[in-house]
């Protein structure tokens, strides 16, 4: 199981990444061994089932490592996962063979993985502002980071009806293998800046946010 070593982000916050190779049945067994009787939804696509199972196995693994109280994950009306015990936060992501989880007992969290390819640069005019498009014009990997960052901010906000161009804004930055840049969520009733942390890996980019509860 190519599970990368969990990355501590605070005394009670852990980030985990997993390149999933296990078959569905093995993932199902791992989930039920950690949370007997856990509800498992039925998906039409086997790949979706494996992603769903793996993300939750990873999240529960991280929560157990942090010594979190016994809790379960349920799905909110927005589609995002939530912990059944107040004060614990979780965010999940998947792209290609990779799944990621960020759990915390001290922060609101968001995480996103995007496999490197041609999709983000091709679709950039749909989700980036004119200024952001200019910033990524000569840097396809930054286009992936911007897409990932907006997905992460969307998860942090946890409300629907955000327009990726109008309500999610990103500061330009000099891309490095890892670092931080500023993301902003702005609506008629909400305006907040966030530190977006990022990592560029050979096959994918990763972004995540730790925000105040």
Number of helices: 5
**Global Rg:** 17 Å
Please tally the β strands and state the result.
11
Amount of beta strand: 25-35%
Overall pLDDT level? 95
The domain tally reads 2
What global shape is seen?
globular
How far apart are the termini?
A: 33 Å
Going by CATH, the homologous superfamily of the largest domain would be: 4'-phosphopantetheinyl transferase domain
Instruction: Please describe the biggest sheet, giving its number of strands, its sense, and whether it closes into a barrel.
Output: 5 strands, antiparallel
Give the strand order of the largest sheet, numbering strands 1, 2, ... along the chain.
Answer: 7-11-10-9-8
Order of helices and strands: EEHHEEEEEHHHEEEE
Unreliable residue runs:
none
Write the CATH architecture name of the largest domain.
Answer: Alpha-Beta Complex
The helix/strand class is alpha+beta
Summarize the structure in words:
It is a single chain. The mean pLDDT is 95. The chain starts with 6 loop residues before the first strand and ends with a strand. It is globular, with a radius of gyration of 17 Å. It has five helices and eleven strands; from the N terminus they run ββααβββββαααββββ. Helix 3 crosses helix 5 and helix 4 crosses helix 5 (140-157). The strands form three sheets. Strands 7-11-10-9-8 form a five-stranded antiparallel β-sheet, with helices on one face. Strands 1-2-6-5 form a four-stranded antiparallel β-sheet, covered by helices on one side. With 213 residues, the chain is α+β, with helices and mostly antiparallel strands. It folds into two domains: 4-105, Ribosomal Protein L22, Chain A, CATH 3.90.470.20; 113-212, no CATH class. Strand 1 (7-10) and strand 2 form a beta hairpin. It catalyses: apo-[aryl-carrier protein] + CoA = holo-[aryl-carrier protein] + adenosine 3',5'-bisphosphate + H(+); apo-[peptidyl-carrier protein] + CoA = holo-[peptidyl-carrier protein] + adenosine 3',5'-bisphosphate + H(+). GO terms for molecular function: holo-[acyl-carrier-protein] synthase activity; magnesium ion binding. Residues 47-104 form the 4'-phosphopantetheinyl transferase N-terminal domain.
């Amino acid at each position: 199981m190519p599970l990368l070593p969990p990355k501590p982000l605070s005394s009670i916050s852990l980030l985990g990444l997993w390149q999933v190779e296990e078959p569905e049945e093995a993932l199902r067994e791992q989930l039920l061994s950690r949370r007997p009787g856990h509800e498992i939804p039925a998906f039409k696509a086997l790949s979706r089932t494996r992603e769903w199972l793996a993300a939750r196995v990873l999240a529960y693994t991280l929560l157990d490592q942090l010594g979190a109280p016994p809790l379960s994950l349920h799905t909110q009306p927005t589609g995002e996962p939530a912990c059944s015990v107040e004060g614990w936060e979780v965010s999940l992501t998947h792209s290609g063979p990779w799944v990621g989880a960020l759990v915390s007992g001290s922060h609101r969290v968001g995480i996103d993985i995007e496999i490197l390819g041609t999709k983000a640069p091709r679709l950039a005019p749909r989700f980036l502002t004119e200024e952001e498009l200019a910033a990524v014009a000569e840097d396809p990997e930054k286009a992936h980071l911007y897409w990932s960052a907006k997905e992460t901010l969307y998860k942090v906000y946890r409300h629907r009806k955000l327009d990726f161009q109008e309500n999610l804004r990103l500061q330009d930055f000099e891309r490095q293998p890892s670092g931080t840049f500023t993301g902003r969520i702005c609506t008629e009733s909400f305006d907040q800046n966030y530190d977006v942390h990022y990592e560029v890996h050979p096959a994918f980019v990763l972004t995540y946010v730790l925000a105040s509860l």
